[in-house]
Amino acid sequence: MAKEAGGCDIYVKFLECSGCGARHEAGSLHNLCRECGRPLLVRYDLARAARTLTRDSLRGRVASLWRYREVLPVAGDASIVTLGEGWTPLAHVRRLGERLGMSRLHVKDESLNPTGSFKARGMTVAVSMAGELGAERLAVPSAGNASGALAAYAAKAGLEAHIYMPRDASRVSVVECVQYGAHVVLVDGFINDCGRIIGEKKEIEGWFEVSTLKEPYRIEGKKTMAYEIAEQMDWTLPDVLVYPTGGGTGLIGIWKAFDEMEELGWIDSKRPRMVSVQAEGCAPIVSAFEAGAETAEAITQPATVAAGLRVPVAIGDFMILRILRESGGCALSVSDAEILDGVRELGSTEGIFAAPEGAACVAALHRLLKRGEVGRQERVVLLITGSGLKYPHLWSDLS
Asked: Across the chain, what does the average pLDDT equal?
């Protein structure tokens, strides 16, 4: 039930398990479903929210993701921890489009978020909610960008941040976390090993875990990419949306937002074909999609220059695969060489220095066009999830 808190009308009804459908109360800290251990999703009273949240009402609102306040879960305005995230450009990339024979190619440039990536979207909401619900010590495993985002927002909120990262994580990401005052531990292993350690220690240490999809609120921040794309495209969705997939929170959030916008009366039932892009050295979603499986098998030795794609298996794999099939989309993998070529191609044609994860979408688009799975006249959006400036170790040998 909606309630008044801190001067803001709130429309959260409950948390719903993405697996078994069990309902959980929204006013307390939760990680995974108590019944089946799968991720929880926030459900809103959208009929009530629609009274104030209309397309016309957005004119003049704050140029951040908090413009969609009624479909974000924080109860009190005073609880919001913000660094100005969201409302990133949707760039019509004409020169790259001309090279590819495409006139309606766009890039959603998330590198312009605070801390240089789209992870800021998830962490502004997750940290705001964690603080509002009484958490004081937050923990996350991260290969890079999520660590800096948690550290920054926790610092802004006055909360402790405990971050476990693979030892080979970017030095820039480690330094970033330290400068924000976070407690950083480097682990011999992969991101899932970092997550396992947090799982073993969190009860003893009193940490609240904000891992990908292991709490219900990071996805709420990530979903605002879809609200922005729809608004920036004048409420006509693209034909194809290409998304680099590690944990897949953003892809799941975007799909959730499309459903919410339809219920709000902003869009119709037509959806983009969703394309999941992974690296050849770590492609569990691609393998599962091609096999017709409902869940993915973990990759035992993941390897790629794109740290954010080096996720051996995603806890939300079943949702990702379902979305790809429902949308008529697909999953494909690209090589590290193609990814690095994508960085150069986007940079040299459009002045956008993409992180390798986002550049994987450029590489994937080449393959999709060659296969005939994307038409050159279609409206296509590529998600550029972060800045290449966060990966200096990849460019050190370039002249």
From this structure: 95
HSE-up (13 A, CA, CB side) for residue 18: 25
Task: Answer yes or no: is 84 within a domain.
Answer: no
Provide the residue range defining the domain that includes 12: 4-78
Residue 85 located in a structural domain: no
Q: Which position has the token pair 């051996």? A: 312
**Dist. CA 291–CA 285, nearest whole Å:** 10
Same domain, 65 and 135: no
What are the E-state strand segments in the chain? 4-5, 8-9, 12-17, 23-24, 40-44, 90-92, 105-109, 137-141, 160-166, 183-187, 208-209, 240-244, 273-279, 330-334, 380-384
Q: How far apart (Å, rounded) are the C-alpha atoms in residues 363 and 384? A: 12
Closest CA to 342 of 91, 107, 86, 149: 107
Confidence label for 56 from pLDDT (cuts 50, 70 and 90): very high
> Does residue 36 fall inside a structural domain?
yes
Q: Which of 355, 206, 203 is nearest to 277 (CA)?
A: 355
Is residue 83 domain-resident?
no
pLDDT in tens, 94-114: 999 999 999 999 999 999 999
CATH of the domain at 150: 3.40.50.1100
Q: Grade residue 186 by pLDDT with cuts at 50, 70 and 90.
A: very high
Q: Same structural domain for residues 151 and 36? A: no
**Which of the listed residues 149, 175, 209 is the one where a domain comes to its end?**
209
8 A C-beta contact, residue 389 and residue 353: yes
Q: CA 181 to CA 161: how far, in whole Å?
A: 8
Which residues, other chains included, contact 31 with Cβ-Cβ below 8 Å and sequence gap of 6+?
Answer: 208, 209, 214, 215
